[in-house]
Design goal:
This protein is an alpha+beta fold and about 250 residues long. The chain is about 45% helix and about 15% strand. It has one domain: PF0523-like, CATH 3.30.2380.10.
Length: about 250
């Protein structure tokens, strides 16, 4: 038995192709209730899917702000408030677009320090380098063009700028990154940058698993006993700070 057809008497205005603004009246065709119901269900599903995607984005951004990144306060000179800065840090693994990120850093699209995670023993060493970079910037003594680059340079025990940036900055084949952004207390900059990184943000507990001690031993010219020492971070931090005193 044929379904009863519904007649829609609504009239729609349609401009003539000549562009003269003449109005034609078009009567909509009779539509089956089944087709109307199907179209309604599909529209409802699309709307529901969009809401789910928006929810996941909000959840991810919120997690990036509070759970996976940390913000540290920096003030190398406790008597000089002008040196007070903050730095937000996040660790990424399984990064797939390192070459693209390197180009963004080169062109200035990214204002952040992208560091090889395997070469930083723990946050204490990173903060020692960050404090040095902020101190140098406050006294107009930076060896590089930006605070982010100065942080990477500060991690190195040598005064060779090119060598330091090549050793500690990301390069072809890098998969695990430490991302540092200065003056990002609210985390908005990190959230924005994380969308450009095709990798996985991880908790800081994962950081220690990424460290490659043979490379650290070679770069800092350490003894095997130093790697087993509880003072390993202090030994590295001393090299970071004292390199400005060596000529």
């Amino acid at each position: 038995m044929c379904q009863k057809k519904l007649k829609d008497n609504r009239m729609k205005k349609n401009k003539d192709r000549t562009g003269e603004g003449r109005t034609n009246f078009i009567y909509s065709e009779n539509v089956s209730p089944y087709l109307l119901s199907k179209e309604y269900n599909e529209s409802k599903k699309r709307k529901q899917l969009k809401n789910e995607i928006d929810f996941l984005k909000r959840k991810y951004n919120s997690r990036m702000k509070s759970g996976l990144s940390r913000v540290y306060e920096l003030q190398p000179d406790p008597y000089d408030a002008t040196q007070r800065r903050c730095m937000r840090v996040c660790v990424f693994t399984e990064v797939k677009n390192v070459n693209e990120l390197m180009e963004m850093v080169r062109t200035g699209e990214i204002d952040a320090a992208l560091i090889k995670a395997e070469l930083v023993v723990e946050p204490f060493v990173l903060l020692a380098a960050a404090n040095r970079a902020v101190h140098q910037a406050a006294h107009n003594r930076m060896s590089t063009r930006s605070l982010a680059a100065e942080l990477i340079y500060s991690l190195s025990p040598t005064r060779n700028i090119s060598e330091s940036l090549l050793n500690f900055g990301i390069s072809d084949g890098s998969e695990n990154l430490i991302v540092c952004i200065f003056d990002d207390a609210k985390g908005s900059k990190m959230v924005k940058l994380s969308k450009k990184i095709k990798g996985k943000p991880v908790k800081f507990d994962k950081w220690m698993e990424l460290v490659h001690y043979p490379s650290i031993k070679k770069l800092y010219n350490l003894k095997s006993s130093d790697l087993k020492s509880e003072d390993l971070c202090d030994i590295i931090a001393n090299q970071i700070v004292s390199k400005d005193l060596v000529y």
